[in-house]
Amino acid sequence: MNHIEKIGKILGIGVNLLFILFPSIPEIYQWIIFGIILVLVGIPHGGIDHLIHNPTIKKSELFNFIIKYLFLIVIYSIIWLYLPKIALLIFILMSSYHFGQSHFIQRILPKKFTSLSISLRGLFFLFIILLGSWERTKTILSPVIILELDINYRLGILICLALVSIGLQLAQRVKMTVSDFLEYLVLAPILYFSPLFISFIVYFGFWHALPSMLEEYRVLRTFTAYNSVKKFIVQLLPFSFISLFGIGLILFFALSYLDENEVFMLFFALVSLISFPHILYMDAFLKKNYQY
Ligand SMILES: CC1=C(/C=C/C(C)=C/C=C/C(C)=C/C=O)C(C)(C)CCC1
User: Which chain regions cross the lipid bilayer (predicted)?
Assistant: First the structure.
């Protein structure tokens, strides 16, 4: 594991522990940490999708790329508008696959059942976060779906997901590494007991966005145009800024019309819109660079 990734993960665990041990920390600090991680790694890791798609992309190709990207966003927005429950289900499924992939970066996986195995790992961690703070998750989801799950049911789901995801990995003869064990035995309970937005942003930032960004850099640095950290960061800036500005602007106007839960739900729906094309390009990028 890259040492920057290791530092990020240790920092992330520290932040979670702080909020578990001191539950009276004012909520504003959760928002500050959420905002910092989102701006520094969360959004930027998707800001160079055009380069991971084609590192030597020309101006005219970039134009086509943007049109395709926007087209995918528009299609998914229509699904959110007319079939919000289906859109939410798609969001959960594609996020599970996408998050799961970052647990297997640079690992050789067999072809059979790999997408399922990856998705189960991602789904387990996503559900640890969502079911661990079920009351909060339930209220945020209420503009789209009303769901009741009692504690036994929630724990049952999590135990089944852990067993099935580990079982499938072993059946595929993919070695359970020390990191895998630590993720199931240490990270999962910590995420479960942390407040929703802290556990989500720490997992998203340090178990997904940062490792993905480091992988993007590892591949792109072989091209002279991006062979230093500074050049790489400069490339991340334009689309990261546009995404943040766009999401910020929409939320700013929505604030006067929507209640708190609707604003949260809208925020995640907007994240899902920019994630949809990103997940497709990232999948092609990772598959090109590994054996699965
Ligand atoms: C945390 C959270 C949710 C899920 C968020 C997800 C699934 C985010 C995925 C982001 C991705 C895939 C980013 C891409 O890089 C819900 C269920 C919407 C509502 C409750 C709070």
Answer: 7-25, 31-48, 69-93, 113-131, 151-170, 190-211, 232-258, 264-286
